[in-house]
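User: Here's a protein and a ligand (zinc ion). What would the complex look like?
Assistant: Let me lay out the input and then the predicted complex.
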Amino acid sequence: MSACANCPKPLGNEASITCDNCNSRLHVVCTGLQNDDRITRNKVRNVKIYCNRCTTIAEQRTALPQLFDNLAEDLVSKLEQKINDKFAAIKEKINNLQSSPSNPELFEEVANEAVERIIRSKNVIIRGLPESVGNVEAKIQNDTVKVSNILKTISTDAIPEKVIRLGKPSASASFH
Ligand SMILES: [Zn+2]
Ligand SMILES: [Zn+2]
């Protein structure tokens, strides 16, 4: 004797009906319909009857898209909040900068000074390097080679970016 799909009792002689999805049989009373309705297959031809298991699966399937919608909405609102927070922080920084007592010219001066300092920190002044001869290009070329050799001698990987002679060329060197 097979059991009802919705309850632990056997089907027995009670009126039973088939689940329209999985074909398992269940008591008519176990469908939630009234027994005294005397429901038969013919009478409920237009009504689909599902066992509890199939109803649960169907409900979960219907609920899934809604669940995804809720999740997506939640994510979007969290992202929005984060972006708003970031914007607020940036706005506050800008406001602080604008309301700071230093004027823009002074700010630029300080910024330029800082950049200059960084650039100058990489400068090397070499004293007593013999003057090179020839035209301007030849002199620069010559000085660059000399400076490169010195840097190599003190075993650094540094390559001179620009070589500049400080001061005026001596009269003797310009005639050599
Ligand atoms: Zn039952
Ligand atoms: Zn079923």
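Summary: Residues 52-99 form the longest helix (48 residues).
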